[in-house]
Structures
1.
Amino acid sequence: MKSSILGVKIDQVTMEEAVAKIAAMIAEPKPHLVITANSEMVMAAKRDPLLYEIIERADLVVPDGIGLIWAGRILNQPLPERVPGVELMEALLAEGVRRQWRVFLLGAEPAVVEQAAKRIAVQYNGINIVGTHHGFFKREEQQQVLDKIKGSHPDILFVALGVPKQEKFAAAHLASLGVPVAMGVGGSFDIFAGTARRAPYWMRRIGLEWLYRILKQPTRIRRAAALPQFAFWVFMEKLFLGGKAADG
């Protein structure tokens, strides 16, 4: 089942269900795209037809942001719970140890992705990281990066290039790479590397992680401008359309 938030389809999944679905995808031979969506991405998709199409065709779109949970309630499109991308990545790494999945990390600065890989290897003892590459490669270097990923034969590719670059990169190359699952994870590598911290649990619990990010990194204020716009359009849709039943 999916919920439609301003025309963007989001899967009605819990964290446990998302992990189970991704595990099933990895067991299949074909490539799959997993997207971690928030209100900023929904607003970006309204302006960017390609991003909208990528989300529409993705195999799984989880509700990363608290704004989507709120909008789901307002629009009568309920989503069971927030599935933060970094926590989903943590759950998949834990499952990857048990199932011996092959993992590739792509994105962030060179020192960050390497530090993230080292700390993940310690935290998830037995995890099989088959390759890493930073996200600051030039256009003429892209084929080398693709060859490196393909040659590593990962089961899951975590892409931390930022929205919408990571979604567009994964969608464009997933089939040729033959990776069972590619998933955009935004700034998650910084958190694993220890160069960034998540909001305290109490702020996350009441839906104020976005505020913590702005306080820690004031340059994000321009991105945060999408949040009141998102709320405005949610209220407009509720006012004029009254909310719609969830899609199957």
2.
Amino acid sequence: MRDMVSELQICYLGLQPYAPIHTKMRKFTNQRTAETADEFWCLQHHAVFTLGANADEQHIISKSKIPIVQSDRGGQVTFHGPGQVIIYLLINLRRKSMGIKQLVQHIEQSVVDLLGSYQIMAEARADAHGVYVGDAKIASLGLRVSGGCSYHGVALNVDMDMGPFAQINPCGFPGLAVTQLKEHGVESSCQQIHTELTMQLCKHLHYKSSNIITNVH
């Protein structure tokens, strides 16, 4: 008998435009059944600003050639670009008997533990979801739950052009500092960080290694 609670497919998708992936996430979530295995989508995005479902566009301070895309995740405005590790978590939370708050805590702790393995002290904040090194945000979360299933996920800044963050109030907080792993002496590739963060997420979300299938597209 299949252990659906701990079954997982990990898909490495490379560098992708935002809008088609967003559409595919929604389609996957809408069409999945009680027997559909959970999936992690590991990727990077071409440069894009995304707005959460209830985001205020006034948090975009200045516009440029970087496209602005409306999303249905939680949160305000953020920037995605090459050099940022993204993992979208398509999880049947109902099947896992897990609430959205628990999922957020597990994701944040996974990032904190990953950074700890590089001797970087980081923390999550109850008043502003995400992971911070000192006063600077290094990872952002944005999730949506539909029919008891989650999609969207976590973005961790690794080695990217940070300039576009100056065009927005990151996550709706004016003056919020933003940092990345490169600024803390980490030279690991995005591929390596994807692998390490995936391992942390699997540990905290209780996926068994024997039930994990990895696909590279």
3.
Amino acid sequence: MPRRIEVLIVGWEQQCCGVPARLGETVSYRLAALDPALAPALNPAIALDVSADGAVPRFLSDNHGEDSAEAPRLNISGLVAGITGVTYPSVPVAGMPGTRTSDTARPQLHRLSELGTGDDAEMNDYLVLLDVPGDTVLPHVVPSTERTVHQEREAYTARLRALRAQGEVGMLLRELADDAATRFGARARILRSDDAAAVTIEPRRAGAAALHWMRSAEDGADGIRVHLGDGVWNLPADVEQVEVLREFLDAAAAGRVEERIVQGGDGLGPLQTVATAADGCSWTATTDLLARFGRGGVFAMARPLALRLERGAHRYVAWE
């Protein structure tokens, strides 16, 4: 009697060297077992139960990995019983300006009749239901040192995050995020992690300065990385610096943040972002990576620096 399995095909894998598949046809895949501990790092879609007939054993189509005792790969043939394309909304990452990720918690499913014809190229993942002979030997997972190390590292990081969130600095960051939401929720889009260790505040008014912060989750490197306007600060994660972060929030909201281009004897010097508190105290982030301009020749410049030069020196407007 046939046995039903489900094959996860990551989008880039299909576009690179995936095989065409149609409902009712027989296809062959090189399959690897999905390690419950390591699979989420490959693709979060494996956690979704989107099979038409409920949960079935799921395997990964892998044309690039190497065989090993821990993760053997086998060529498996079967009859295609279903094809589902999966797409995920693209969402910004809290605390990381310009960074987006796939929101795997909100998959969008697309029933397909065939795969590999070009019309399905916009999918992030594919799930193929495959009916294989009942006596088919399928790939299996053997517990490995890599799996154990991965599990221990993930568990340690989770514990460290929880401890830091419950500490004084963690509580102050949460209070600051709550205060920002109360004061500016109507004037800015606010994204935050559950523990408020990462927050993005993007004002709706054009020309206003956005504020992002992210606390490190690394052992022995407890700090807060802050992006305000075009400037970047790396602050120690202590009570005093959280108060500085609060001053940054107030300065951005009040329009007390400006960009400067320092003039040097041989051309343009460093770029600076200056945040000024209500009492006149200020903090400056300096970017020294700007290439010096000569009187001719060709030079290369990173796009963020080029954009800052194009915008020039200016003062951000208030969030009001």
4.
Amino acid sequence: MKTDKKILDACCGSRMFWFDKTNPDVLFADIRNESHILCDGRDLNIVPDVRIDFRNMPFEDNTFKMVVFDPPHLEKLGSSSWLAKKYGKLNGSWEEDIKAGFDECMRVLDFNGTLIFKWNETQIKVSKLLTVIGHRPLFGHVTGRHLSTHWMAFLKSQ
């Protein structure tokens, strides 16, 4: 699949953390395309520009200057819970799925490009995640009320 976009959000969900949810430089991608009403009555719309599986993306190698990877991070929740609707749910083979997704993100990232990886360690610790993906971030930042959301930056070197 050809694109002229510079940035890929490989599993954009409802684009929650984007200040500009329609930025023309970003290709918003997700495997889901669905709408829900959350328990507090708010609408949740997951409407990607393109539907893809982050484990097997249809892009050529070295396509994007930046890739954002915010995959599902919860495995212990009901599939119809509001958390599953909002964030998605990991399946039983989460280690293989996340490793395949990380590898795909690095494959479609251009040389000297940046991968921004967001992970919440409420159920799975970042130390375990880093063992699974086999890469160490350049730097990162912890956010959230319980300091459990980690933003990490990776560089694709030549």
